[in-house]
Design a protein that fits this description.
By secondary structure, the protein is α/β, with parallel strands linked by helices. The chain is built from 14 helices and 17 strands. The strands form 2 sheets. A 15-stranded mixed β-sheet has the order 4-3-2-5-6-7-1-8-16-14-13-9-11-12-17, with helices on both faces. Strand 3, helix 5 and strand 4 form a beta-alpha-beta unit. The longest helix has 24 residues. It starts with a helix and ends in a 5-residue tail after the last helix.
């Protein structure tokens, strides 16, 4: 009997290990690319290539504006209040608090007025929302769904999360951003309780691309089509900005966002600015940065310092600092609060804003969304914000980094060993 019990336990342990390995190993490819930078066009001429390599489309005739910190939430709530047809919100973070109350009140009011309101939140990232908020939304007529709820039939998807942050209103206005429905995003990033973040508001044909991304996850979870409420109206040009939407989904063979970051930066001739809260990519990114510096490109990388909600991820990223500094990359740590925006600006003309972190989880596992656009005004606004943020940064030198205690460098190396799952 004891022998039989041992066999059963061994079989169960083997099955559990195999299942865990299957879940953790599922992800998009982020292959090492053999890059010949001399073959890359300037970023001004690269939009068709960027869109083609990421299975996207270039949409002409758009208008875009940058909204910082809590002001972005105010803009979103104002557009929600003006909606007449449909409101689609997809988010990763949803927590009980003042921001939750503001969004619940605004969404419920519009649903009761006959607007088609659909809310999709991640089952893990959104688990801290209040039951009262859920009940209020449902009773008002808001259609709600959770992405990849932890159920036995979802075992193969448990390591996949929607990290997308997007809002589409009447099929005519869209936002992509780093914010969540949580009180950290109130204020102006003035202290550790109020995070620093950025959103992009869009009008024009590119809104169809963002609506399509929302529809993908909505259909996946609800098996219903989000078409009522004129979700896909005919969109005429409203400006002169070309834009393209990039999204990564769990079933993709290759990460479109990783491809976009690589190719867009490979087009740089003068300057690359990056702000990101979680930096722990594969070593190939450091090699790309080194190639850019040798080409004469100024590469500036800004990440969180002591204020972070994921210290282990930060330490994994610290493992890469030495090779970045040796390559000539400028490395800054923001010390005022958690810097949470996901920004790339290239040569002062092209910018990308979205939900994607610069770590293996975002690039290989999460559902992500972002918009790239050729707009000097947006790039200027983002660069000016970057320069303002520098006032609250520590710049690392190679000498300072080499003076770090050996135990810290050892822990960084250990953390980086797990970077694929962080």
């Amino acid at each position: 009997m004891e022998h039989l019990s041992a066999i059963i336990l061994a079989v169960a342990a083997t099955a559990l290990s195999m299942g865990l390995a299957f879940v953790l190993s599922r992800g998009r490819g982020t292959p090492f690319l053999k890059l010949r930078l001399e073959e890359f066009p300037q970023i001004q001429d690269a939009l068709p290539m960027l869109a083609g390599l990421t299975e996207s489309t270039v949409y002409d005739g758009n208008r875009a504006s940058v909204h910082q910190n809590g002001a972005a939430l105010e803009a979103m709530l104002a557009d929600i209040a003006a909606a007449t047809q449909s409101i689609h919100l997809e988010t990763f973070v949803w927590c009980e608090g003042k921001v939750e109350t503001l969004f619940v009140q605004a969404l419920a009011k519009q649903a009761r007025a006959g607007v088609h309101v659909r809310v999709l939140k991640d089952a893990v990232g959104g688990a801290k929302g209040s039951e009262h908020a859920r009940r209020t939304l449902c009773e008002s007529g808001v259609q709600m769904a959770e992405y990849c709820a932890p159920r036995w039939w979802n075992l193969g998807r448990l390591n996949s999360r929607t990290h997308r942050k997007l809002l589409v209103i009447d099929g005519r206005i869209a936002y992509t951003f780093g914010h969540g429905v949580s009180d950290q995003w109130l204020g102006d990033g003035e202290d550790p309780e109020h995070w620093r973040d950025t959103a992009l508001r869009l009008e024009g044909p590119v809104v169809h691309g963002l609506q399509t991304v929302f529809a993908q996850n909505w259909v996946e979870e609800t098996h219903s089509l989000p078409v009522s409420g004129d979700s896909f109206p005919k969109l005429e040009p409203v400006g002169d900005t070309p834009a393209h939407v990039v999204s990564s989904a769990s079933g993709d063979a290759v990460s479109s966002v990783a491809m976009l970051y690589t190719v867009a930066m490979g087009c740089a001739r003068k300057e690359v600015l990056i702000q990101n809260p979680y930096f722990a990519p594969n070593p190939g990114v450091c090699e790309l940065f080194a190639m850019l510096v040798r080409r004469g490109v100024r590469v500036h990388l800004m990440m969180p310092g002591k204020h972070t909600d994921s210290p282990f991820v930060r330490r994994a990223g610290c493992h890469l600092y030495r090779r970045l500094l040796e390559a000539g990359v400028k490395v800054y740590e923001y010390d005022r609060t958690l810097i949470h925006q996901k920004i790339v600006v290239i040569d002062g003309v092209w910018a990308h804003v979205g939900s994607t972190n610069f770590d293996a989880r975002s690039l290989a596992l999460n559902e992500e969304i972002g918009v790239g656009l050729l707009d000097r005004a947006v790039a200027r606004d983002l660069k000016q914000a970057f320069e303002r943020d520098l006032k609250f940064c520590r710049e690392w030198s190679l000498e300072d980094w080499r003076r770090r205690p050996a135990r810290d460098r050892l822990f960084d190396s250990f953390a980086y060993l797990l970077h694929d799952q962080l």
